[in-house]
Design a protein that fits this description.
254 residues, alpha/beta, Rossmann fold, 39% helix, globular
């Protein structure tokens, strides 16, 4: 693979399955043989937990962004072909940085400069906010993946997020590739199908073809520190995530 892809998994709205998407996507890519780096940029450290690592027992990204430690010092082997940078206990303190001006938003990008060439995919799991941590993720990324649920409030939030991304594109002078994935999807609900159709209509080429259905197995697996490929490898959810991985690799969208 010639292109090194950096993807921020982002949504300002909570409860959309963002971390579930992040955890299963990074493992799915690793199972395909890609070299993958997962970065937990959420102070709640849910990606770290979902991959079976205790955030309180490891040094994390807070050491990089607050103390200029080399990010490579903090890589944790999470699975074959998959390394994790945990959130760290003090990650929330990043939001209170007041010195440095615009350079505050470039901390993660600068930290990753020497590591990009070593990984096929770098995925950044973002907090459900629009603060400095998310700014760092967007400035460091070439793409964003936006998980959202099949309801109209989520659709309204997406419009606001797209406008925000447009502002970032102007500031960066670069196009940010945008992908949307429907998670916690309930295919039998008319409302869910209506939202899906509106996404296809208003955001052509951005909605990935595979929806991730709401499932008990996906809700349970993080409590065991496992991805769906480990917890229920023959389940419908595992099959959906295999397809979603291919969607991301090939950028298969409606």
């Amino acid at each position: 693979m010639s292109e090194h892809r950096i993807i921020a998994v982002i949504n300002q709205k909570g409860g959309v399955g963002k971390t579930t998407v992040s955890a299963n996507l990074v493992h799915g890519l690793a199972l395909k043989g890609f070299n993958v780096l997962a970065i937990d940029l959420d102070p709640q450290a849910q990606l770290t937990t979902s991959l079976g690592v205790d955030n309180s027992e490891v040094n994390g990204l807070d050491e990089v962004l607050l103390n200029q430690r080399a990010i490579s010092d903090l890589f944790i082997p999470a699975r074959e072909n998959l390394y994790l940078v945990a959130a760290g206990y003090g990650l929330a303190d990043i939001e209170h940085i007041t010195e440095g001006g615009a350079s505050r938003g470039m901390l993660l990008r600068n930290a990753l400069t020497e590591e990009i060439e070593h990984y096929d995919y770098i995925l950044i799991d973002c907090p459900p906010s629009s603060g400095l941590l998310v700014v760092n993720a967007i400035f460091a990324s070439k793409e964003v993946l936006i998980p959202m649920t099949g309801d109209f409030l989520a659709l309204q939030g997406l419009s606001h997020l797209m406008a925000t991304l447009g502002n970032f594109e102007q500031a960066l002078g670069n196009h940010i590739r945008q992908m949307i994935v429907l998670s916690k999807f309930q295919a039998r609900r008319c409302l869910s199908q209506e939202v899906k159709n509106k996404l296809i209509q208003h955001f052509p080429g951005k909605l990935l073809q595979t929806e991730i259905s709401e499932s008990v197995a996906l809700a349970e697996s993080p409590s065991f520190g496992k991805t769906i490929f480990e917890y229920k490898p023959k389940s419908k959810s595992a099959l959906e995530y295999k397809k979603l991985v291919d969607d991301v690799i090939d950028m298969r969208a409606y």
